[in-house]
Amino acid sequence: MAARCQVTGVGPQFGNQISHSHRRTKRRFDPNIQKKTYYVPSLGRKVTLNLSVKGIKTIDARGIESVVQDLIKRGEKL
């Protein structure tokens, strides 16, 4: 599963892991990506999306219809 949210576009960030002795090595901070399935009445079918938790909250606030319309305008594959 790709570490990128389809709604917010958030992806992995990079930084340093710091040990007790303060040595630094590169590491990757992955977002909390969840696979969620929603029923979209305008399309008449279910849509499975890879979402961050913030993306799930966005769908709860705006509704699945408006979010799917934005994804289709952006050319995102559903």
Give your account of this protein's structure.
Helix 1 crosses helix 2. This protein has a domain at 32-77. The chain has helices at 53-62, 64-74, and strands spanning 13-18, 24-29, 33-40, 45-52. The chain has 2 helices and 4 strands; from the N terminus they run ββββαα. With 78 residues, it is an alpha+beta fold. The strands form 2 sheets. Strands 1-2 form a two-stranded antiparallel ribbon. A two-stranded antiparallel sheet has the order 3-4. The chain is elongated.
Question: Summary?
Answer:
With 78 residues, the chain is an alpha+beta fold.
Low-confidence segments = none
Q: Strand count, sense and closure of the main sheet? A: 2 strands, antiparallel
Q: Name the strands of the widest sheet in spatial order.
A: 1-2
Identify the overall geometry: elongated
Beta-strand share of residues: 35-45%
What is the rounded Rg?
16 Å
N→C terminal distance: 15 Å
Number of helices: 2
Order of helices and strands: EEEEHH
Helix vs. strand class: alpha+beta
Label this structure with key terms.
78 residues, alpha+beta, two-stranded antiparallel ribbon, two-stranded antiparallel sheet, 4 strands, 36% strand
Task: Lay out the secondary structure.
Layout lengths: L12 E6 L5 E6 L3 E8 L4 E8 H10 L1 H11 L4
Antiparallel strand pairs: 1-2, 3-4
Helix pairs in contact: 1-2
